[in-house]
């Protein structure tokens, strides 16, 4: 196995980024962030890739940021230079939140703090039935800086978000599925195959249609209903001129499977 902190794999139209610090519960460190910074633009620009899966090796998806490294790094960053959190937010979390292709988080185990915030960047979440999910910042006197307090209440009921934030406790994958955060819960030995099957199913759809739907859906909660509808109508007008829409309509009429090109 590679000693890289983040592994990049590609299987047809599906890319996979695997957090690879199992001995440290896949905690986020600068080496991992640097690899995210390299891989995300490459995956976004590759027209052959239609879906991205983010998962982890070992018993944890991600237990959060490497606090030891962050504490050490605070004394080393020069004034005016981006620190660990700056880079994590600007080069990893924000690009994933706005990724032009569907992102699936496959939670293979413990998912805490920055790991939860990383999972929150995904469009869909598939979780192992033994995954434990929580915020945990309160347990260490640390403040969530990647969406724990600001984005989590948009994804689960407010009182559930407050419970996770204030208690530092974890909830099961099944409970988080009931609250709407997790889309599918599967046995641990089926997680990766289930995530791959979901990704391959999605990859058969029109890339340009999915990208436009994601842009509207991601912005919808920040707009009024009427503004969100206008945004959708604008993208619909653009999409009318796409090759994929014409191909989809032709395939429907001809009773065949469409061959989308993403344009």
From TrEMBL:
The keyword Cell wall biogenesis/degradation does not apply. The lineage of its organism: Bacteria, Pseudomonadati, Pseudomonadota, Gammaproteobacteria, Cellvibrionales. It comes from the Bacteria. It comes from Congregibacter litoralis KT71. GO terms for biological process: fatty acid beta-oxidation. Its EC number is 4.2.1.17. Keywords: Lyase. Belongs to the enoyl-CoA hydratase/isomerase family. GO terms for molecular function: enoyl-CoA hydratase activity. SUPFAM superfamilies: ClpP/crotonase. Signal peptide: none annotated. It is an enzyme of class 4 (lyase). The keyword Repressor does not apply. This is Short chain enoyl-CoA hydratase.
């Amino acid at each position: 196995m590679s000693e890289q902190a983040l592994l990049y794999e590609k299987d047809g139209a599906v890319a996979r980024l695997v957090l690879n610090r199992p001995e440290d519960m896949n905690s986020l460190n600068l080496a991992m962030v640097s690899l995210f910074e390299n891989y995300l633009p490459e995956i976004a620009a590759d027209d052959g890739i239609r879906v991205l899966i983010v998962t982890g090796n070992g018993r944890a998806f991600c237990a959060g940021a490497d606090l030891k490294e962050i504490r050490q790094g605070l004394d080393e960053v020069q004034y005016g230079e981006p620190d660990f959190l700056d880079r994590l937010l600007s080069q990893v979390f924000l690009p994933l939140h706005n990724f032009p292709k569907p992102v699936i988080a496959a939670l293979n185990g413990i998912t805490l703090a920055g790991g939860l915030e990383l999972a929150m960047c995904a469009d869909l979440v598939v979780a192992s039935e033994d995954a434990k999910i929580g915020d945990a910042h309160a347990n260490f006197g640390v403040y969530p800086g990647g969406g724990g307090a600001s984005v989590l209440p948009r994804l689960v009921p407010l009182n559930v978000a407050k419970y996770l934030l204030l208690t530092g406790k974890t909830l099961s994958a099944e409970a988080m599925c009931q609250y709407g955060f997790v889309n599918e819960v599967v046995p641990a030995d089926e997680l990766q195959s289930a995530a791959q099957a979901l990704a391959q199913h999605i990859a058969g759809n029109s890339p340009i249609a999915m990208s436009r739907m994601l842009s509207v859906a991601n912005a919808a909660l920040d707009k009024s209903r009427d503004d969100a509808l206008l945004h959708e109508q604008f993208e619909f007008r653009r999409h009318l001129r796409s090759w994929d829409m014409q191909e989809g309509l032709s395939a429907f009429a001809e009773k065949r499977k469409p061959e989308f090109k993403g344009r």
